[in-house]
Each structure stands twice: as structure tokens, then as C-alpha cells.
Amino acid sequence: MRIAVPLAIPLGLALVLGAYVSLSSGGTSNVNQTALGASPGASAPDSAAPSSTAVAAAPNVNCDIIVPANPLTAKGLATPYQLTGQDGMSPEQSGCTMANASALGAFVQATILNTQTGQLYVYDPLVITQGTTPAVKPVMPTLPRHSVVTIDFGFNGTTLTQVGATRHTLSNANCLDGQGGSQFGQVSFCNGTNFFNEAFQLERQGKLKVPFEGTTRKIVATGGRLGTGRDCPVIRNFDMVDQDPSDNVTTEYLLNPATGQTAQDTSSNAANIAGSTLLLNGSDNTLLDLFMDPALGCTPFQAPDLANNGQPTSSQALDELLAAKNQPATAALVPENDEMTLNAQGQFDAAKTDAYRQEVGQADVSWATNASSSPAMYCQNMVNIQTPFLAANENVLTTGQSPVTAVGGNLFTFMANRLSMSFTNLNCQNFGLTDPVTVTLDGNGVAVAATFNTTPQQAANPYGAPRPGNGWRHGRSHHQLMNPSGM
Q1: Is 163 within a domain?
Q2: CB atoms < 10 A from the CB of 431, how many?
Q3: How far is CA 136 from the centre of its chain?
Q4: Of 114, 299, 146, 148, whose CA–CA distance to 211 is shortest?
Q5: pLDDT digits (tens, 9 = 90+) for 304-330
Q6: Which of 230, 416, 433, 465 has the fewest beta carbons under 10 Å from its own?
Q7: Angle CA(240)–CA(222)–CA(249) in degrees, nearest 5?
Q8: Domain residues for 246?
Q9: Is residue 114 part of a domain?
Q10: pTM of the entire structure?
Q11: Distance (Å, whole) CA 66 – CA 127
Q12: Total domain count for the chain?
């Protein structure tokens, strides 16, 4: 067991997730299919009065989020963040509303560390549409006197830009949404580097106790030097990663469909907001915590939720702490060919990759980390580790629920399709590798079966960082990708 109280997915949550991703008209959960790895669909709004020659304008995929003053304090955490359009566009003009969360919803998550005791807490600040008020006033958290806070942002669109409520809001809170004039895209952070530096120091002192990842007898150990044993997966395992690891949060909000107002997802709010819709951020963390762990008989690392009477909950930062404590010998760190870490010219950028890694507690780019996560080695390890894992564990993964039934009918076909998409989007073929997955799609483009070539492959120039050349694609809109950022 990773924690004293294991994660139990509420039956209602599991059912509404299934209802939504099955495209049921009666579903009550609002999960972004595109961000979870779905093939692009006809999601663009129709023109109000199209002519025979008019070309429909591309839907907006970028938004701003207004960060409240002093966001690392209790008052700042309880002050709603505001989602709005870029370049002076209103929420309505841009589509940047929380009522449109499946396409352009923003999510914020704080993890708090008591620097005296090592106790961890989670608090999900509320995001509202600019110009609205919360459906229910956010809970004011009680923070330890001596604490350090990290804030993670997730987005269901393409690029979310931080805007400070005051001139010095972002700099005072060490907020970062990119590096060198190039944004990360869906993710951004506040104070992550300081949080993880303090956490790792407290671990060394014995004050912070991060648990063992746990083991499971449900999976088949694929063995070998790089193979997967019976340890439960963590966010840095190659058996579960995709093209952009360590991205997005596990935050959930409630939406009042009648008013478009949002509220924190607490037991009290869920009971008092009639007909509320659950809003989720498509993320690797949600995939691991809500789908893979239950299927494999594992549990995520959790801490008390300061907005929900101390109920245990997971967070992106907790997942990273667990992964750092139980990091596999061949670790999947954020690679330089992750679209979020390419520079503005679409080139590999070690400095930008380092800036991203530091915000999630990962080691900088170096010869040591390149042994597992250089662009070529990331592709090679994803192919050589995840492929046999999926092939050997088809039976147990088939029983798992698919996060997005438009991608795969169950967890197994979802993961297989996601692996193939990630291979393409990371341009792994540029390193002399071949896609190890053959996916069978039904008439709706949903993966219904998959086969694998588990023969180990060797990447060309495995430890170098070849620059993008022929066939290299970058700057791709997440709405144009087969497998955009997220799950």
C-alpha cells in the first residue's frame, strides 16, 4: 500500500466518465477528449450563416489565466483565478469559458509542504470565467506557519498564458509559463523549483516520508535489464508515458450548467449544486491515478485536501514526489523532443527543458539523464519497455476502463493507440526506429484491437541530440494532433 487510505474511485465518477467518453447525450462529466489523446473530430463550431464560398475560421485554442495577487498565501489560494481570452478578447468571443471546459478549460492545483513536520497537503484553487462569480465561495485553507507551496496549471486547449493580477504577482510567486520567450503550452507553474528543493532536503533529513510505490500481482513481469517488474507504475515509468510526460493536474471542479458558474469539487458542493457537471483536466496524472492504478490494484500517493475537510486526494506534485522516491533505473524524464520544450523555432532547447524539469522535481539535461531520456533514447525506451508491457498485460488492461472511448474501447486499446500516436508525434522514426504497434480501428476510428512487435530496437545516435531536420514537425496545434498533450 502506498498510503494508509487507498484510493477508491466513486462509482458515480466512474459511470459519468464512461458516459461522457462514450458520447452519451446524458453524460454529466466534461472531460476533454482531445487533451486525453483522442483523434481530432468535428468539434469546431459551425458558422452562424456560412456561404458556399466562405472558409470557417479556425477555432481559438489559446487563453489567458489571471493569477490572483499573492497566490502562495492562504488568501491568494482562496481567491479565484480568472479564465479569459487573449489580446483583449472577452471570454465569450474567445470561447475561454469554464462552461467550455472540455475544449478550453483551465485547472489549478496547489501542493503544500509543512517544512517543520514534512506533512503534505493539497488544495485546488478555483478557476472561474472572467466576469462571473463562484457558484460557491472557495474554502479558505489553513496553511502551516512554516510551509512552501507549489502551484501547477493544466489546460485543455493549446497554450495557457499566465497574467498577473498585479505588476509583480508572477515574479513574486516565481511563476513560469515558458522560457526564453517560448511558452510551454498547456502547463505552467508557480514556485515548483523551490518546493521540490525543500522537499528533497526534508527527505534527506528524514522529516518527509514518501511511501514505497507498492507492488501488484495483477501484471506480468516482462523482465530483462530494462523490463518492467511487479512494482506499481509511477509517472516516470516508460511503461505508461506518452509524448509529453509529467503534464497537467488531477484537479476537478463542479460546473452549474444553468449559470456557467464553477465551484470546488467538495462533498458539500456536490450535494448542494443540483445537476452539477464534473470538470476534469486530461492529464498523464489522471490516467495513472484514476485509471491505471485501479486496474492494476495500485493506489496513488495522497494527502489531505484542505478544501474538502481533509479527505485524501492526489496531485501532480505528489505523483512527482512518489516517482522521484521510486524512480526506475531507466527513468522517463521530460525529453527535449517534447513539443512543450521545443524553442520558438522548433529546435531542441536544453535550457527550456531544464526549466520545465526543475518545476516538476526532475534532474537537468546531462549525459547522465540522456542515457534514458535524450530524444533518441526516450523513443527507444518507450518502444522497448512499453511495448512488451502492453503485450504481456493485455488481459488485465482490457478489463480497465478507457479514459477516452473515442480513442480505445478499453484501457488496453487506449494505451496501444496512444503509444503509436506518441511514436509519430515524437518523430521517433527520425532515429531509425519503427512503430511497434499495429492498431485495428472500427468504422468510427476507435481502436478495437492491437498487436505488437516486441523485438528490441536500437536508436541511431542514442545519446546525442540531433536537430530537427527533414520530416521534423513542430508547432503543431494540439487540436491538429492525433495524440495531443494530456493522457
Answers
A1: yes
A2: 24
A3: 26
A4: 299
A5: 999 999 999 999 999 999 999 999 999
A6: 230
A7: 15
A8: 11-32+60-385
A9: yes
A10: 0.85
A11: 9
A12: 1
